[in-house]
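REQUEST FORM: STRUCTURE PREDICTION
Request ID: SP-0412
Submitted by: Lab K.M.
Chain count: 1
Length (residues): 213
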Amino acid sequence: MVRLYKDLLEERISWQQRVHATLFHQGTPVVPKLGTADGARRLAAAELSAAGRQAVGTGLRQIDRLNAEMTPLRRQLVRFSSRQPRCRALRQSCYGIGGLLSVAVWAELGDCRRFASSDDAVRFTGLDITVYASGGKRARGHIARQGSPVLRWALYEAALYASRPTSPGYAYFCRVRQRIDGQRALLSVARKLARRCHHTLRDLGEEALQPAT
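STATUS: Completed
RESULT:
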C-alpha cells in the first residue's frame, strides 16, 4: 500500500512538472500551487495557445484523478499507523515521522534485530556515503542509493520536517549546513533519523512484530 501511494505520488509529480514545462515554453510565469484557488486564477488569466491550454487542462485533470486516488489511501495508511505498535513508537520517538511516513519506514526497514548496528541500518537505506578511489585520488562521496527507494524517500521527507526551526534537531541541521551545505545537511539528518528508527524498532523486540489492533 505504501509503494502504491508512492507510485501515485511520482505520477502526480510528473504531471505537475509537465504542466509547469508547458507554462514555461508558453512564456507564462510559474504557478507554484496548481491546485489552489490562486493557482486556478493565474492559469485562467495566462496567455496560452490553444494547444498549450489543452495540454495544461489535461495535466490538471490527471492531477485531480491522482488526488482522488491518493487521498483515501493516505487516510487508510494513517489510520493503520495509529493501530500498529511499531508505527506508534516511530511517531512518538522520531520527530518528523508522522502517520504516513511511519508506515513507510516500518514496512521497508523491517525487523531491525537483523542489523548488527545502526551503521548496517543506514547502509540498508542507501543513504550511506560511498568512496571512490582511483590512481591515488579520492572523489567526493555520494550516497549509495542502494536498497529501497521508498525508504529513502520517507527518511528524506522526515528530514525536511526535522530540519525546521521548531524541530529539536534544528541546531544540528544548522551546524552541518554551515560546515557543508543545505542539501547534504538534510541527508545527514535523514541518516540520523535512520539510526534512531533502528534503535526504536530494535528495542521493541517481539512487541514490534505485533499486528495492528
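NOTES: The chain is about 65% helix and 0% strand.
Reviewed by: T.R.
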